[in-house]
Amino acid sequence: MADMMKRDERRKRIREVRRRLVQEGPTRTRDREADFETVTVPERDCDQLRDLLISEGVQTVVEVGLAYASSALAIGEALVTVNPPRPRHVIIDPFQECDWSNSGWDLLRSAGLDSIASLMLAPSSIALPQLLTEGLVADAAFVDGSHRFHEVFVDLYFLRKIVRPGGLIVIDDAGTPSVLTAVHYYERNLGWTVIPDAFPGEALATVVAGPRAEPVTRCKAIRLPDPSFEPPFEEFHLF
Using CA atoms, how far apart are residues 66 and 177, in angstroms rounded to an integer? Predict the structure, then answer.
């Protein structure tokens, strides 16, 4: 009973920080017009991300990109709700100090989530191989870092080795052509499967990438194959 009360208090604290962030915005933003509104993941998507991770019973989550922490707070709420013995939230953001003035990290601290979260200030192309070398195994990942094709592709390359077979990778800004194209490679060649209706709502647009056109929502949830496999090079499919 005491543990349940403690968990409820932690969730209440996180939700209060999330509420203030939505209603008041962060205390510090970059010197760009409507930067918070443009960059941050909307509340509805964050709620859906939280609920998806809870349904998966996640214990360890990797996140690429922190910024103003809207998604990180939702991930933290999911981990506190699941309440595993050793929850872990690894966040990668090389610009959190220099560009974001630690706005996101300070919000996580105010929500009491620094007890389960750690922040890596290295580029994801350096941090992810380090996590792989350390033997980290995650249940899920949330990707909202660089949107350049080659950098998204590299993030996904390492995350498929870090996220366990059958685990989840959730992509933000999934309709951006560079992001969409990178994801298509893994869908067509490595057995990644989109989870339909993981983020229900109106499609943002119809995007043309490669040989097909498709409606997309902002976030996209993908299930990794179980077991994982390496395809023969002769079976390469254009994407």
Answer: 22
